[in-house]
Amino acid sequence: MGRNLNVGILGASGLVGRTFLRLLEERHFPVGELRALASERSEGQAVPFRGTPIPIRAARPDMFDGIHLAFFCVDEEISRQWAPIAGRAGAVVIDAGAAWRMDTGVPLVVPEVNPDDAGEHEGIIAGPNCSTIQMVVALAPIHRVNPITRIIVDSYQSVSGAGIAALEELDAQTRAYRASRSDAGVHDDASYTVDPSLVRVHPHQIAMNVLPQIGSFRDNGYSGEEMKIVNETRKIMHAPDIAISATTVRVPVAVGHAEAVHVELTYPMSAEDVRGILVSAAGVAIVDDPSNCAYPLPIHAAGRDEVFVGRIRKDLSHPHGIAMWIVSDNVRKGAALNAVQVAELLIQDGCL
Q: pTM here?
């Protein structure tokens, strides 16, 4: 890949930050010096990289001196504070968080979909929301052949999308539920609730439950997560007129987001033709043999880089409609991997 790059990871102690480290190692990314950065409360901890513990240091302006590339996986407020500082120090910032996604001066990039946009950056490149990434990887190849006019998507999103604390919450609630019923028959008690003290991350218990809320609700009745899908999809696909409606649901799954997607196309298209487009699409893997119970599952997508697509069929409700089921690892392709692929794209194009 050429010269080695000095790389910083802001948010290195978190779930996505640790995934960045694994991916840089797995993909033999040309790292010279690696700086693991986080908040002061994480300083003194260490994260592994290429067999060596890397000490986590608190973010300070001088921490970006000499850094060529900075991966950010932090809250919006933190990114808004530190990305300009990293940029002034000479680093290109690739942010997997939400801070810059809809900024008109910042490209929002999925390499399989809009790679040319990356070259238009002015120091910051944004990565989309996890649920948006997997959907546009699957839909963009279809859109290029037969423009999509409408998308209806219902997502079933794992708790890892809310971070390490959410994973720990699901585990604690599941253990408590099982302990409370160890002496009871499966159907002896209609109650599936756990102690309210175990509900800390999500607005309600997530174990044995599904929550039709991810993020706060807007005045239009849609949640923040749902509006991310709407706005980000239009920006990435350069299709401001696509009609999009989303319902996002948190489910008691550790890793892997699933989406039931219905699209309306400009012209009628058979399921076979759609499958033919996707079988050669970058980043897509087809698992579509429902007669043998073969379709994408989160347990099979976890730890994988592909966006898995199955249940491809005509939508019976519209003559131009196609329905499909899309699953991907939300922490890898939905966050860290997408950002690393953007960096690889910049290197390939001689921009880094």
A: 0.95
Residues 120 and 93 in one domain: yes
Residue 241 lies in a domain: yes
Helix (H, G, I), strand (E, B) or coil at 220: coil
**Closest of 63, 133, 62 to residue 101, by C-alpha:** 133
Structural domain that includes position 47: 5-128+335-348
Q: What percent of the chain has pLDDT over 90?
A: 92
Q: Are 129 and 98 in contact (CB under 8 A)?
A: yes
Residue among 257, 262, 300, 351 flagged as catalytic: 257
Q: Is 130 a catalytic residue?
A: yes
Tell me which of 130, 143, 238, 293 is the catalytic residue: 130
Total domains present in the chain: 3
**Annotation says 257 is catalytic:** yes
* Residue 352 C-beta-side C-alpha neighbours within 13 Å: 34
Give tens-digit pLDDT for 286-316. Answer: 999 999 999 999 999 999 999 999 999 999 9
Tell which residue, 277, 266, 281, 267, has the closest CA to residue 312.
277
